[in-house]
Amino acid sequence: MRSTESASDNNAVLIQRYLDFLRLERRHSENSVTAVKRDLALIDAPLCAASSANLKTILAKRHAGGAAPASLARMASSWRGFFKFLHDHGHIEINPSLGLKTPKLPRALPKALGVDSLAALLQGPLPQTFRFAQAHVLIELLYCTGLRISEALSLSANVLSNASELRVIGKGNKARVVPVVDALQARFAEFSEPRLRHLSELGKVDQIALFVSAKGAPLTVRQAQRDVADHAANSGLGQHLHPHMLRHSFGSHVLQGTQNLRAVQELLGHASIASTQVYTALDFDHLSSVYDNAFPRAK
């Protein structure tokens, strides 16, 4: 019993060290850290003595139990990172995760809205209700800048004062600057009064977050997702709208207009050009047009 408890305690210590490493040094989000912790909890052997066979058995059981390929891939990725950490810090001599294989995932294309659909959604004045007025501004911000929803919600209210650019901290604690187009500046100015009125009614005019909840607290990602989807539905968009679709729409439309993949990479804050190249698949209409105009046999 004592040896079992000792192994369990040692597992907990090693896992906590790794989770702290992800939080403090790798700057992973709390959701990512929680997912890794959940994946590591599935290992039913002393971590310092875990073998490749142990890990493969767990994956096989999860697969037989109906786990999705994406879940299995995430699980294996969590284990690889953890055992590499243990190996690098001298806790184990052999990394048991090196031979792990999971089902190959098909690469899904990002979903993007058409230019006309977004133009129709964003036209006209702000709605009368504060919730949907704010959702409208958030939609326009995400589409005009390509920000991630977490980046947008981190903005402070000082951007309402005629900002010509936004400086945000993205994944990996990487800073970037994105321009603010005239249309977005005008929408910020329009939003300033209803935001101030909403916070004044709550007695929270000192709130510095740009986007706020019904109670005047900083808006959460979950609530922002609901507000964006509900406003799009009320506006007759005809399909579910998720904030990340606006980022994909921005990337796709900028690429269509410029054909400059490197510029799109910088604007989106992608660490690797490979992440940006997926937008080339969305630009088939332009490529088809170029082919028709340039290739002799297409005429």
Automatic annotation (TrEMBL):
This is Tyrosine recombinase XerC. InterPro entries: CB (IPR044068), DNA_brk_join_enz (IPR011010), Integrase-like_cat_sf (IPR013762), Integrase_catalytic (IPR002104), Integrase_recombinase_N (IPR010998), Integrase_SAM-like_N (IPR004107), Tyrosine_recombinase_XerCD (IPR050090). Keywords: Chromosome partition, DNA integration, DNA recombination, DNA-binding. Pfam families: Phage_int_SAM_1, Phage_integrase. Residues 108-292 form the Tyr recombinase domain. SUPFAM superfamilies: DNA breaking-rejoining enzymes. Residues 9-87 form the Core-binding (CB) domain.
